[in-house]
Amino acid sequence: TPVVGFKAETLEAAGRIDEAEAVLRPLIEQAQQQGEAIPLPLREVWARVLVQRKAYPEAITTIDTILDEAKPEANLSPVLYLKAKAHDRSHQYPQAWEAARQANEYGAREYDPDLHTLQVDALIEIWSNTDSFPRTRCDSAVPVFVAGMPRSGTSLIDQIIDAHPHASGVGELAIIEQFATQLSAQYNPEATPEEQFGTRGEP
């Protein structure tokens, strides 16, 4: 099921809604026929497909079941943003506002200008010394990952690549952001350059 869910999520993110629905629908119908609950990860992807299909009431109902059954420690901001989107497109603006407000509460912190200055200075220091970073020896032409800051043009680059007859894009995938988080956690500026992101053999 996790593999199926990831495949459906990838297809949905790439805008291949028909294929994502074809992957999910048999599982959804089987669970309904057996009176079983649809696993939460599959339910979230299904809700995204429903929003793409403009089936907003069904999407909102599905999202509400996720919110009701999720663990207290779960980060529900992506689901709440999706709910806000469904309400907004249904012209239910007060409900959309409330869902977005709840989503924004996750991870919200009081702004600390001194801490912000320290963080920016640290980023400048790290990325001003990239010559010491280890270099890959991989010479494979595939796959190519396009990563960048928000609003930096990465989505446009993906579209340009996808338009080429000998290439294809898969849209925006959260897995790259997850990898960046893991990589950041491994970074040790005190280590030698070849070990700053962990030694060989480490996960």
Which structural traits does this protein have?
mainly alpha; 203 residues; 59% helix; 9 helices; globular
Give the rounded overall mean pLDDT: 84
Fraction of helical residues: 55-70%
Overall, the morphology is: globular
> If helices are DSSP runs of H or I spanning 4 or more residues, what is the number of helices?
9
Low-pLDDT runs of 5+ residues are none
Radius of gyration, in Å, reads: 21 Å
Order of helices and strands: HHHHHHHHH
Backbone structural class: mainly alpha
Distance from N terminus to C terminus (CA atoms, Å) equals 24 Å
Beta-strand percentage range: under 5%
Major β-sheet, in short?
none
The overall strand count is 0
Topology:
Layout: H1 2-13, H2 17-33, H3 40-52, H4 56-69, H5 77-89, H6 93-105, H7 113-127, H8 154-163, H9 174-186
Helix pairs in contact: 1-2, 1-3, 2-3, 3-4, 3-5, 4-5, 5-6
Notes on the structure:
The protein has 203 residues and is mostly helical. 59% of the residues lie in helices and 0% in strands. It contains nine helices and no strands. It has helices at residues 2-13, 17-33, 40-52, 56-69, 77-89, 93-105, 113-127, 154-163, 174-186. Helix 1 (2-13) packs parallel to helix 3 (40-52) and helix 4 (56-69) packs antiparallel against helix 5 (77-89). The mean pLDDT is 84.
In short:
This protein is an all-alpha fold and 203 residues long. The protein has helices spanning 2-13, 17-33, 40-52, 56-69, 77-89, 93-105, 113-127, 154-163, 174-186.
